[in-house]
Amino acid sequence: MPAARKTRKPDIKMVILGDMNVGKTSLLHRYTERSFKDTLSTVGGAFFLKQWGPYNISIWDTAGREQFHGLGSMYCRGAAAIILTYDVTSWQSLLQLEERFLSLTDSANSDCVFAVVGNKADLTDPCAQVTTTEDTPACPTPPHTPTVHKQVAQEDAVALYNRIIRYKALDTHTLPRAEDMCFETSAKTGYNVDALFETLFELLLPSIIRKQAQTQTGSATVCLEDSQEEKKKKIECCV
Ligand SMILES: Nc1nc2c(ncn2[C@@H]2O[C@H](COP(=O)(O)OP(=O)(O)O)[C@@H](O)[C@H]2O)c(=O)[nH]1
Ligand SMILES: [Mg+2]
Question: What are the GO MF terms of this UniProt record (predicted)?
Fold first, then answer.
């Protein structure tokens, strides 16, 4: 019943955080709309709903200035996954993740999954310059050599990810390797964008199934209670 599923509540919530202009909205747009627009403004927060197989995933986009309005932790409440995004050409944007955005994630679920994402990889990495399609090889000859200086190395992102795990006191034995949760993407060409979201969704699958089971148990209890109430009424009126 696809129509019924469309109107259903989201099964799980994800949030994308990071400074203004790192490409948060572009990443979500690339993933959900399969395209890139040069100008996409985010007023306050926006909400994307992605149907992944039989599951509904809500992805919350943020404007990047939420903490000034005390809204950041509200967006993160109940989040099962958080994408911390920086721009590979801006060291400052990586610093901001730790200085301004990490504390906003305190209201997320205690077992929240994190990904650290360096966007705009097309500006610095030849492999990220060609629009990714199913037919293109992994790293074809790039159209031109990138000229923009890369300010954030992958190792810096991995170090940040490890600090986040310590800050959150998450159990490293149950988590994927830090390297597997740090992505360099390009919303412009699509480079690594599907890999980012699909990796997160796969990791969230157990939580989705657990949440659905809890919801179903909850509704079964309600039905049972209703029917007992009905029975009671019938008995009372017959006496
Ligand atoms: N070259 C390049 N530009 C990007 C990429 N992603 C976003 N941009 C540009 O960066 C600017 C900010 O993007 P936007 O998605 O609005 O950032 P947000 O404020 O984090 O949501 C826009 O001009 C985008 O066109 C990317 O992957 N590569
Ligand atoms: Mg935006």
Answer: GTP binding; GTPase activity
3-state secondary structure (DSSP) of residue 82: strand
Of the ligands numbered here, which is closest to the C-alpha atom of 37?
Answer: 1
Handedness of CA 120, 128, 113, 215 (dihedral sign): positive
Sheet holding 81-87, edge to edge: 46-52, 55-61, 12-18, 81-87, 113-119, 182-184
The domains found in the chain, sorted by start residue, are 2-238 (3.40.50.300)
**Pocket perturbation via mutation, ligand 1, pick of 25, 26, 66 by most ligand atoms within 8 A of CB:** 26
The finding on whether 100 has its CB within 6 A of some atom of ligand 1 is: no
Atom of ligand 1 nearest to the CA of 19: 20
Model pLDDT for residues 115-125, shown as the tens digit of each residue: 999 999 999 99
